[in-house]
Amino acid sequence: GFSRQMVEILSKHGVAFSSFDVFSDEEVRQGLKAFSRWPTYPQLYVAGELVGGLDIVKELEASGELDTICPKAQKLEDRLKSLINKAPVMLFMKGSKQVAKCGFSKQIIEIMNNTGVDYETFDILEDEEVRQGLKSFSNWPTYPQLYVRGELVGGLDIVKELKESGELLPVLKGEN
Q1: For 80-122, what is each residue's pLDDT tens digit?
Q2: Phi and psi (nearest 5°) for 93?
Q3: CATH code for the part of the protein at 76-173
Q4: Could you state, in order of their start, the residue ranges of all structural domains in the chain?
């Protein structure tokens, strides 16, 4: 119950956090009590420093201090915008440049590599939130998705059409 309350408070305040189940490792469970000199769980740490347990977090919440000491979770839309703009040419795909994990991704990688244009990739199989969120954000239901300077170019079919028409290189260079 105490851990559930802690998670509810942190979530309500949009705090970016991760957790560790102390029941999964007795050595960590006992060792952390000794390390922190705090006998109970949950224990909240910020930047490697013990903040305290549930009672302390409730006090911090009541005083308004919790919002000032805890890092905020990045909103999905902001995270997607940041990822889309990580590089001038950004490809969201299944796998990576080195190992495409589906036929469509493999085809687009071959096309991209033949352009000589530098690009970055993001493996959507590694992050379900990005995988689903980007479909809504871009209003494009499939992968791969290619972005140039933060703007959606399209998927494999669009990239193939641009290649066939000779427009791909200018688009990738941001000339169109």
Answers
A1: 999 999 999 999 999 999 999 999 999 999 999 999 999 999 9
A2: -150, 175
A3: 3.40.30.10
A4: 2-69, 76-173
